[in-house]
Each structure stands twice: as C-alpha cells, then as structure tokens.
Design a protein that fits this description.
Number of strands: 11
Helix content: 25-40%
CATH class: Alpha Beta
Number of domains: 1
Order of helices and strands: EHHEHEHEEEEEHHHEEHE
Strand content: 15-25%
Number of helices: 8
Radius of gyration: 18 Å
C-alpha cells in the first residue's frame, strides 16, 4: 500500500497544478495495487490533524489485518512532514511491517498542533528526500525537517538539495522571483512555535547582524502580535533553541533576500528534482522501469477533495 499526502495550499490548486504534482505522479505510476491520496492543508493551517487522523485511520486499519501490507509514504511540503509523523505513529503502535519507503519532497513543519520528529524514525527502512537549496531564496522561513535519520543501522537515506522554489520542489513550478515576497515578509508571516517551545515549526533564522532576539508568533500572525498570540522570543539567550541552527541547508549568510528563479529557471529546477527522484524510485522498485516524472497525472481540481478523506489513486 502507498499513501500520498499533498502539500500546503493544494485545496485551491487548479487542474494544471494537480497534473504536475509529484505526489500524484508517484501514486499514478506506483507498483502498489492499493494507492490512496489525501489533499494537503490550507494555507492558513489548522486542518493538519484532520489530514493526519484520516491517514492514520486508514493505515491503522490496514496494518492490523492478518495480511498486513508493507507501507510506502509519499508527501510534499507539510504533507511530507505529516508522513514523517505517521511513520512515528506506526513505530509507537508496533504495527506490522516497517515503512518500506518514505518519499519526501521538501518536507517542512509548519504547524503547532503536534510535533514533527526532526529525524526519520527507525520504523522507516529507506528514506529519499529532495529539498530546497537555500541559495535559491525561496520560502527561507520554511525550515526543513527529515534531513537526518534517527539510527543509520535501521534506516538508509538519500537526500539532495535542488535549486528550485518550494513550489517547484513539489512539481508545481512558478515564477518565484516575481510571485514570492521578500525573505523578511515571508518569514514574519509564517512563523509558528509549539506552546512548550520545544520545537519551532519554522525555525527562526536571524535576519541580519544584531537581530538575535526576534518574536515568533502563531502561524500567519503579524510579527508585532507575537507576544499577544502566545509567541515567544528566541535568540542566543533562549534555552533549548539556538539563534541560528546551522545545517547543510541553513547557511544564513548565503541566503538572498528574495528568490532568484524566474519561471524558466524554476521549471528547469523542478525537472531536475523529478529526474533525480524518479531514478531512485525506479532503482529501489517503488516505480517500474520506464516510469517518468514528465508524465502528467490525471486532471483534478483541488477543491474537489474533502480534507482528511482518502481517495483511491
């Protein structure tokens, strides 16, 4: 069985976006006989638990059957983060076989309803993750999760950065240079933090020298309203959260203030994502030989899908 969860904002996608979706393309070309698709969360958030509960209900019931199937999970953006969380739930429940393949397109944790694991759980056998190169400047307020495994003895991982927008990483490339806001505006409007402060859903990166103490509020709350909204200040003196969490994609000094990719560049970057991912998925048997990321998925309107409902793919 393979379960796919779409990315943020997909409820409003047009048919042209849905046909380009990497998640829907993987499902359409998968070798699995049982394929299920979940539309992703809204831009405003808040419906993540509905999606996760719907997917968990499906997985839980299937894996408790006598002929419990192997599970493959594929997701984009917050949908990819939800797939990581589902892998954690499977591990905690002790259900049947492990997750044979966890396929992630630019996984980002942008919700405060539950904590997405920073690392891939040991219940996953193989993880393949394509994610943004920060030098592209796209959605730099969206911090990635799922870049490392909890235990390499249990989980193998392939990961690769790409010069593509966040949209291009999921197959829906666009003119990021013209359509995305500045880094500061984008970040200020997309910060979220768990109530206990243990996990920043969008890890704050300093916006320049002297910016060590910046407020973080609930998702889509104006930066100035952070304290009133229950946000917290994080910085060099905040316990448990570093002002700058340096990793292979968190190189603050190299981040441009705005996206660098126009439509043609983003289309090329998105194509590279698909070619890299499809080569790996064919190699490990998730997709059949001859599968191609350039083959469109069937047309559909995002609004035609009910949030939290599984649709045969």
């Amino acid at each position: 069985m393979i379960v796919g969860i779409e990315g943020t904002g997909s409820q409003a996608w047009k048919a042209s976006d849905m046909t380009r979706s990497f998640v829907r393309k993987v499902l359409a070309q998968s070798n699995q006989s049982d394929k299920f698709y979940f539309i992703g969360p809204s831009n405003l958030g808040g419906d993540g638990p509905t999606i996760v509960n719907g997917a968990w209900s499906l997985i839980n019931s299937r894996m408790r059957q006598a002929d419990s199937p192997s599970i493959q999970l594929v997701g984009y953006s917050r949908g990819a983060a939800y797939c990581i969380y589902l892998a954690k739930l499977i591990a905690e429940a002790g259900l049947g076989p492990r997750v044979s393949h966890l396929i992630l397109f630019d996984a980002v944790a942008r919700q405060a309803e539950f904590a997405i694991p920073d690392q891939i759980p040991t219940t996953v056998h193989r993880c393949i993750h394509a994610y943004r190169n920060p030098a592209g400047g796209s959605r730099n307020g969206f911090e990635n999760v799922g870049l490392y495994v909890q235990d390499p003895h249990f989980t193998s991982m392939k990961k690769q950065m790409f010069m593509a927008s966040h949209g291009g990483m999921g197959g829906t490339w666009y003119n990021a240079k013209a359509d995305e806001g500045t880094w500061g505006q984008d970040t200020a409007m997309s910060m979220a933090v768990k109530a206990n402060g243990s996990q920043a859903a969008n890890t704050l990166r300093a916006m320049g020298p002297g910016s060590a103490g910046l407020a973080v509020g609930v998702f889509n709350a104006p930066l100035g309203a952070a304290t009133a909204a229950g946000g917290k200040f994080i910085g060099s003196k905040a316990p448990g959260i570093a002002a700058q969490q340096i990793s292979d994609r968190d190189q603050i000094a190299r981040m441009p203030g705005t996206p660098t990719m126009d439509a043609a560049a983003d289309q090329a970057g998105s194509r590279s994502v698909g070619e890299w991912m499809w080569a790996h998925l064919v190699d490990v048997g998730v997709l059949p030989g001859g599968a191609s990321s350039q083959v469109d998925a069937s047309p559909a309107e995002g609004k035609s899908f009910v949030v939290g409902t599984a649709y045969p793919a």
